Amino acid sequence: MPEGIGHWSQGHGSPGMKIYIDPFTYEDPNEAVREFAKEIDVSFVKIEEVIGAGEFGEVYKGRLKLPGKREIYVAIKTLKAGYSEKQRRDFLSEASIMGQFDHPNIIRLEGVVTKSRPVMIITEFMENGALDSFLRQNDGQFTVIQLVGMLRGIAAGMKYLAEMNYVHRDLAARNILVNSNLVCKVSDFGLSRYLQDDTSDPTYTSSLGGKIPVRWTAPEAIAYRKFTSASDVWSYGIVMWEVMSFGERPYWDMSNQDVINAIEQDYRLPPPMDCPAALHQLMLDCWQKDRNTRPRFTEIVNTLDKMIRNPASLKTVATITAVPSQPLLDRSIPDFTAFTSVDDWLSAVKMSQYRDSFLTAGFTSLQLVAQMTSE
Question: Do the annotations mark residue 77 as ligand-binding?
Answer without folding.
Answer: yes
